[in-house]
Design goal:
Distance between the termini: 53 Å
Structural class: alpha+beta
Radius of gyration: 22 Å
Strand content: 5-15%
Mean pLDDT: 93
Helix content: 40-55%
Length: 401
């Protein structure tokens, strides 16, 4: 147990879960993460181990075979996993968001069918909002679902699906004009469809193609893909919640908890970067002594540790706010913004401490240096977080009269 990133007020069960996950990370993830990442290899054995631990059902209610734990427990678990390898936490995150959306907004039939299989890891989820011509402007999506008898026919191209190939269930956001007259606000004419498919690449069901993995700078191992729908027929009972026009709200609810997850990932990666930096600083000697004894390095370590602590505290606060049933978009936005920015800074400082060796693929910090930038983009850029934070602050501090 280290001094940094401790959380007060945890139950015995939460501490036991985190201890088990931490042990798994140290024994099963850290020793192989860099090798698998360099090969861009999907961590099948690690995923199977997490299935056995029950991580895929961590927040799914016990009545559906899950552990029924809180968002806080989940976020702290993700923090531990990201400390080992951020890509593994990404595999879990998209699954978690789809399970959360089903739990919160699904029909009873949808919950009964999907959640037990998702808790066991038999069905693994991905979710899809973005498209090639848009990023943060979700209201501008062009993918469309049109009613045809008892089905909807979906057409369009989606982008940046984490787990796009390995998943067997994708929550896809499309425009549906049915029942929404001309002039309806764009966000009120969107629908989330629950699309079941085979794992893999190519045509994974009639009308649905996953072309292949996108080659990325970092965040390797996990498959990131496009999704192409060409006459994809989906039964009407696979509209999330059974009602069209609610998709934007479903997705934003999922992204809100996803931002807590990204904050947790930032905390985990930053914590690992600090561990690497403080360890290397005590082993590397210059001018007759360990570089950790040079004041410049001590200052850098002090700044890094403070950022790890601050990001962790904000992430915990955002998770606890959501668990209490209160609105937490302000806290989640702040936590995601701060944790991702601090993660980048802590990783870069650890990279600098390593000197020339940090540029070598033999050292773990090289991998972290390529992974950290993804957190600046995922679940909304820093600019989007600032917009959310600014608008919420103006609501809270609006001048009366």
């Amino acid at each position: 147990m280290t001094r940094l990133a401790q959380t007060e007020g945890l139950t015995d069960i939460q501490r036991e879960i985190l201890s088990t996950v931490r042990d798994f990370v140290d024994k099963e993830i850290l020793p192989v993460a860099t090798e698998l990442e360099h090969r861009d290899e999907y961590p099948s054995q690690i995923v199977e181990g997490l299935k056995e631990l029950g991580v895929f059902g961590l927040m799914i209610p016990e009545e559906y075979g899950g552990l029924g734990e809180s968002l806080l427990t989940y976020a702290l678990t993700v923090e531990e996993i990201a400390r080992g390898w951020m890509s593994v936490s990404g595999i879990i995150n998209t699954h978690f968001i789809v399970a959360y959306m089903l739990k919160q907004h699904g029909t009873q039939e949808q919950k009964d069918y999907f959640l037990p299989k998702m808790a066991a890891g038999e069905i693994r989820g991905a979710f899809s909002m973005s498209e090639p011509a848009l990023g943060s402007d979700v209201s501008a999506i062009s993918s469309k679902g049109v009613r045809d008898g008892d089905d909807y026919v979906l057409n369009g191209q989606k982008m940046w699906l984490t787990n796009g190939g390995s998943s067997t269930l994708v929550a896809v956001l499309c425009r549906t004009d049915e029942g929404h007259p001309e002039g309806t606000a764009p966000h009120k004419s969107m629908t989330t469809f629950l699309v079941e498919k085979e794992a893999g690449f190519g045509e994974v069901r009639p009308g649905l193609t996953i072309p292949g993995k996108i080659d990325k700078m970092g965040y390797k191992g996990v498959d990131t893909t496009e999704l192409i729908m060409d006459g994809l027929r989906i039964p009407a009972d696979r509209v999330l919640g059974g009602e069209t026009g609610r998709g934007f709200y479903h997705m934003m609810d999922g992204v809100e908890v996803g931002r807590v997850n990204v904050a947790a990932r930032g905390c985990g990666v930053a914590h690992r970067a600090f561990e690497l930096g403080v360890s290397y600083a005590q082993q590397r000697h210059t001018f007759g002594k360990p570089i950790a004894q040079h004041q410049a390095i001590q200052f850098k370590l002090a700044e890094m540790a403070t950022k790890v602590e601050a990001a962790h505290a904000m992430m915990v606060n955002a998770a606890r706010k959501k668990d209490s049933g209160q609105r937490n978009d302000l806290e989640a936005g702040m936590a995601k913004y701060l944790a991702s920015e601090y993660c980048k800074e802590v990783v870069e400082d650890a990279f600098r401490i390593h000197g020339g060796y940090g540029f070598s693929k033999e050292y773990e910090i090289e991998r972290l240096y390529r992974e950290a930038p993804m957190l600046l983009i995922g679940e909304g850029t820093a600019e989007i977080q600032k917009m959310i934070i600014g608008r919420r602050l103006l609501e809270e501090y609006r001048i009366q009269g």
